[in-house]
Design brief:
It contains 6 helices and 8 strands; from the N terminus they run E-E-E-H-E-H-H-E-H-E-E-H-E-H. The chain is α/β, with parallel strands linked by helices and 217 residues long. An 8-stranded mixed sheet has the order 1-2-4-3-5-6-7-8, sandwiched between helices.
């Protein structure tokens, strides 16, 4: 694992970059406020990606100071444009400086980070080859969803009824290859025994199939 410092406009974001030997796919994690790159859930899913031969870049979309302010005011968690701008910047850093030239990019987004992932995918086009949303709010990407070209998998807990409805709305707007999968008996954070394992397997299978074959051609 390499600790990285990613320079963006006016800020630097810390991250953890793991590139398996011979791997050509890299999954960028975009999580919502209140989580972090050190989150056990994010780390668990990242390990499953790594087992599939995919690299991972876990980083925080907000600085530590912004997170502290956000905890009091909650003014940044729904600033999807800011989160998208940060994710686009980190993606360009990864493509230009952080990884080998033939690396293929995918996103794993949760909560409001899923909306940022989809908006960034729409902006970057063919530079992003797959998106997975875990318990996300893809509806917050609005009409931008119609411009997403990356194959997109939406995963929601079966007991997370309100978020299921919001994901169904987003699913209907997507024009790319897409799938909506419900994990029976799972809540919003997939804390039930075995639930996160199901999410991780679904996500790894989705991205492995869509990133690796293109990279090997």
């Amino acid at each position: 694992m390499a600790e990285v410092s990613i320079p963006l406009k006016g800020v630097r974001l810390g991250g953890e970059l793991i590139l398996p030997q011979g791997g050509t796919g890299l999954i960028l994690f975009a999580h919502g406020s209140g989580s972090s790159r050190h989150s056990p859930r994010n780390q668990f899913v990242a390990q499953r990606f790594q087992q599939a031969g995919l690299g991972t870049l876990l980083f925080d979309l907000l600085t530590a100071e912004e997170e502290q302010s956000e905890a009091r005011t909650r003014h940044l968690r729904f600033d999807i444009d800011l989160l998208t701008e940060r994710l686009v910047g980190v993606t360009r850093w990864a493509l230009d400086e952080g990884t080998p030239k033939d690396t293929c990019i995918g996103y794993f987004g949760s909560s409001t980070g899923a909306a940022a992932a989809l908006k960034a995918a729409a902006e970057l086009g063919q530079d992003v080859l797959g998106v997975v949303s875990r318990g996300g709010r893809p509806d917050l990407a609005g009409n931008t969803l119609r411009r997403v070209t990356a194959p997109t998998l939406l995963i929601v807990g079966g007991d997370d009824t309100q978020v299921i409805a919001l994901n169904e709305e987003a699913y209907d707007l997507l024009r790319c290859e897409k799938a909506l999968r419900i994990v029976p008996g799972a809540s919003h954070l997939f804390e039930e025994p075995g639930a996160l394992e199901i999410v991780a397997d679904m996500a790894a299978d989705w991205c492995e199939a869509r990133l690796a074959p293109i990279a090997r051609r």
